[in-house]
Amino acid sequence: MPIRVKVLYFGQAREAAGSGGETVTLPARASVGTLVREATAAHQRMGKLSGSMKVAVNEEIAEIGQELRDGDTVAFLPPVAGG
Amino acid sequence: MKKITREKILPLKILKEMDDPAAGAVILFLGTVRNHSEAGKVDKIAYETYEPMAEKRLAAIEAEVKRIWPVRKVKTVHRVGKLSIGDVSVAVAVSADHRREAFEACRHAIERIKHEVPMWKKERLGDGTEAWVEGTPIGDALRVRQR
Question: What ipTM was predicted for this assembly?
Answer without folding.
Answer: 0.96
